[in-house]
Amino acid sequence: MTDVTIIGASGYAGAELIRILANHKECKIRHLVAKGSKNRCFEEVFPSLGYLTELRGMVVGDVDEDFSLKTDPAVNDTDVVFLALPHGASVPFVKACLEKNKNVIDLGADFRFHDVATYERWYGHHEAPELCSDTVYGLVEMHRDLIPDHGLIANPGCYVTGATLAMLPLVEAGCVDLDSLIFDSKSGISGAGRGLKEGSLYGECSESIKAYGVASHRHTPEIEQNLSEAAGRPLTISFTPHLTPMNRGILTTAYAKLNEKGKKADLEAIFRNRYEGEPFIRVLPRGKMPETKWIQGTNYVIIGFTVDPRTERVIVCSVLDNLVKGAAGQAVQNMNVMYGFDEREGLTMLPIFP
């Protein structure tokens, strides 16, 4: 049995980790550490979960206290630590865990970039650049073979996962003009996190939709990093995210100009061949588009596409749950690969409908 600690457990992603891992046959939640918990019992911090799991009565540690003093026991008797913290907060926790030879899966952005200069351009100063080069970027569908040999996994961003998986097969196959990539994504409000923000208030979001981070969203260089790797050369994309009045889910629409190879290719076969055997990717028949309801609460990604003959553009839509495949579920998928478990363990739940 693999022992797990979750640091940052009281946020949406942290709570989703608890929901998934509570039903995981290969691991046991040993410690929870959450902002402002002040050593309250599990059911006080998580009333929606606390009376339904064996975690009832567990004391939740406080992430605000000194890490070396408060969470040493949590690290000493655990195997893997999940970090569900805001960007910029993971470094001291990662250092402390790696010093004790504990595996770390970081759901934040701190270690997603091998190029530290790119991170600092979009996020600010990095406190541990020496660790970035030895981190595996945990998009399993790209880096499955690298994950078992590394102790620090950087979980991808939610928008990035949907955008990358939507266009990855066509970029790898050399079927699109790499200078024509445009991504338009729409996310549920939970993507903004659980912290109090004026723009996330019900009265601000209900009955409205808005673009934000236009030409400046921090997931842009992460998408570029992934697709540049797939293309074998640097590329630049356009990415615009939108906030929609739903709790969870992301729908990404990706556009690209087909090149001569792409115009002649069987695009459906390219998608199906690339994702054949992938346990969490589903490709729809050409012309059929997915909906966010189809993946709510699951670790699946559903992809549909069509071609506009007037513009000679391919249009690809992907949907995922931003808290599951976009965060906690993908982190558990990384753990499963890291430890050689069935990759689907704990993650085969079907969507809720309606």
Describe the structure.
The structure is a single chain. Residues 65-69 have low confidence and may be disordered. The longest helix is centred in the last third of the chain and has 16 residues, at 324-339. Strand 13 and strand 14 (313-320) form a beta hairpin. This protein starts with a strand and ends in a 15-residue tail after the last helix. It has two domains: 2-134, NAD(P)-binding Rossmann-like Domain (Rossmann fold), CATH 3.40.50; 159-321, Dihydrodipicolinate Reductase, domain 2, CATH 3.30.360.10. Helix 10 (158-172) packs parallel to helix 12. The protein has 15 helices and 14 strands. The chain has 354 residues and is α/β, with parallel strands linked by helices. The strands form two sheets. Strands 3-2-1-4-5-7-6 form a seven-stranded parallel sheet, with helices on both faces. A seven-stranded mixed sheet has the order 9-10-8-11-14-13-12. It has helices at residues 12-21, 42-45, 47-50, 67-70, 72-76, 91-99, 116-123, 129-132, 140-143, 158-172, 202-205, 220-231, 260-264, 267-275, 324-339, and strands at residues 2-7, 27-34, 61-62, 80-83, 103-106, 136-137, 152-154, 182-187, 210-211, 238-243, 250-257, 281-283, 301-308, 313-320. The protein is 32% helix and 20% strand.
